[in-house]
Amino acid sequence: MAVEEYRERVKSEKRAAALAAAGRAFLSHGYDRTTLAHVAREAGISTGTLFKHFPTKAALFEGIMEELWEVDPELQRPLPPAGNPTAGLTAIGHDYAGKLRQPDTGPLFRVIIAEAPRFPELGQALFLRGKAPYLNHLHAYLRSEIAAGTMDIHDVPLAARQFLGMINDLIFWPTFLAADQVVDDAEVGRVIDEAVLTLLARYGRPVKDGAARPA
């Protein structure tokens, strides 16, 4: 058992080293000019070991997207408890904002925008490996609130995009498009609070304890 645990730990460490090296390479050299041989050398592993984890450069980029969005295809992320959508949506909003504000998020988006015309798989990796699983997680949470009787939503995917869009538009894009723009923690909190208020004004159902609508 100890030997197996050791092997799994080494395997995990080599995978993490490959992703870290690939992230640095993509940001420094772009997607097109990054090679698997360069990534393996920077990660301190053999190309054979790298190929076992990521057989193609596209697979490497997909792995980076999964790590950025903290998506593990083999694990079911826990949902906030249903019954108080103000608290649940606020928690999800802060989690989403945290992902948007990670140091590598903006630079990786620039790589995707710059090279997507020649490498459409980059945009697909962003959506399929990162954003889509995150949206599915939010869909499941909204459906749990519908089942609890606290929200009335006929188009869950639309409502999910509306919620994330209100946060994304005011937190990510200003700093992405203008380097001198600063969105501090207080503003992030205000944006999330307003997004929750707006979504519940549209979809919230009043309940006896008032949990559906924030005061």
From TrEMBL:
One Pfam family per UniProt: TetR_N
Domain of life: Bacteria
PROSITE patterns: HTH_TETR_1 (PS01081), HTH_TETR_2 (PS50977)
InterPro entries reported for this sequence: DNA-bd_HTH_TetR-type_CS, Homeodomain-like_sf, HTH-type_TetR-like_transc_reg, HTH_TetR, Tet_transcr_reg_TetR-rel_C_sf, TetR_C_Proteobacteria
Occurrences of domain HTH tetR-type (ranges): 12-72
DNA-binding positions: 35-54
Signal peptide stretch: none
The entry's keywords: DNA-binding
UniProt GO MF annotations: DNA-binding transcription factor activity; transcription cis-regulatory region binding
Name of the protein described by the UniProt record: TetR family transcriptional regulator
Lineage: Bacteria, Pseudomonadati, Pseudomonadota, Alphaproteobacteria, Rhodospirillales
